[in-house]
């Protein structure tokens, strides 16, 4: 069977690229929709009104919603792995991935004696055939490698291909994905279409490609990789990790703000109100001083000094009040 007609088809690669572009382009809109739904639900249950757009509270909520969307997506993928995970070939034969062929053959004979239809009247013919298939797959280096990388679906096609084709198949989907994304990025910039600024995550996507290479190494572990991968990971794990890393890297700017504290940017609306309040207060104080004391002093410079001192006093009180509020919040 031709290796190109397998589970990882070109259509699935194209759909991965399209979904990646859609998420890059419309991530802000998706988060905004969930944010609006969150505010409506909160107002219904608690009566708290929606904050003004672009305010500090609004932006904080946006970052938190982005973080939780990524977290829920990760939980969803992990659930999918758990739900679809089946007993692997090594567990069925009760052998370790690092056992020798002699140990594998010995264990197979022990188990077959219990189900062989020619030796036991109640023997299960179907189970016997399945055990034979598992044994031959694990005994064949090429099929064993394909099984560990792609799962049971690879057994049919991996028998008629070379190890080189199997290795190429293992990384072909990733090469297509990265190549397709880079091509679209270059074309969009060439024709001066709005560039996808978040594509600096290509540096991070190198992690995915590294994961691919390590997945090849773990299929035949040698020092020091046998310590990095002491047990075989389920074949579903790699694809789920790839998908999660792609979404995680896009959401990282929002997650970073939640995980690492930064100096808060003052709310423009709140700052404007404070400036207006302080200006009004200083104007009133200056007017009162002029009305009360201007005529009392022959030297007009004394009046100016008195006004400056009063302004400093008001500013000092406002600063002390602001520091107290900051300490209470922290």
From TrEMBL:
* PROSITE patterns registered for this protein in UniProt: DNAJ_2 (PS50076)
Q: Where is the J domain?
A: 88-151
| GO molecular function annotation | misfolded protein binding; protein-folding chaperone binding
Per the record's keyword annotation, is Membrane included, yes or no?
yes
- Give the source's domain of life in one word: Eukaryota
**Which Gene3D superfamilies does this one have?**
DnaJ domain
Task: Supply the name of the protein.
Answer: J domain-containing protein
- Supply the source organism for this entry: Pneumocystis jirovecii (strain RU7) (Human pneumocystis pneumonia agent)
Its ancestry begins with:
Eukaryota, Fungi, Dikarya, Ascomycota, Taphrinomycotina
